[in-house]
Design goal:
The chain is mainly β and 132 residues long. It has one domain: Leucine-rich repeat, LRR (right-handed beta-alpha superhelix). Helix content is 6%, strand content 27%. It contains two helices and nine strands; from the N terminus they run βββββααββββ. It has a four-stranded parallel sheet, with no helix packed on it. Strands 3-5-9 form a three-stranded parallel sheet, with no helix packed on it. It is globular, with a radius of gyration of 15 Å.
Length: 132
């Protein structure tokens, strides 16, 4: 039932593929760690992060290509129903979720995460090639 996961800095490891089994995950922030290697090569899941809306892998040491097939299952980023557009915040019923995001080199702290907020940040890694 985990919806928000923000892993603080100082983690030195490969991409934690087990996270893909968290089907309720809406926010995944792994930025500013020492993660390395490919994000895609060892994945065994058929559907990846079906509810993910914020995916931040910035400022790590990930490498390899960015395959288009991985992005096609990020349906929560593509389809926003009319019901999802009303003003709601993640974690409102149990506690207040917050994250820090970087946009145009400006760090912003979102003290509340609105459910319609969508972001992908893979900057400052060693990805290469086209998203193909």
């Amino acid at each position: 039932m985990l919806q928000v996961l923000d892993i603080g800095s100082k983690v030195d490891d490969t991409f934690p593929y087990w996270l893909e089994s968290l089907l309720e995950l809406q926010v995944l922030v792994l930025h500013s760690n020492q993660f390395y290697g490919s994000v895609w090569s060892c994945s065994k899941m058929k559907h990846y992060f079906p509810k993910l809306k914020v995916f931040d892998l910035s400022n790590d040491r990930f490498c390899g290509p960015l395959p288009a097939w991985y992005f096609k299952d990020l349906n929560a980023m593509k389809d926003v129903s009319e019901a999802d557009r009303k003003l709601q915040y993640m974690g409102e019923s149990y506690y207040q979720d917050s994250i820090t995001v970087t946009m145009e080199r400006l760090q912003l702290e979102l003290v509340k995460i609105i459910t319609t907020f969508i972001a992908i940040d893979f900057s400052n890694n060693n990805f290469h090639g086209e998203i193909a």
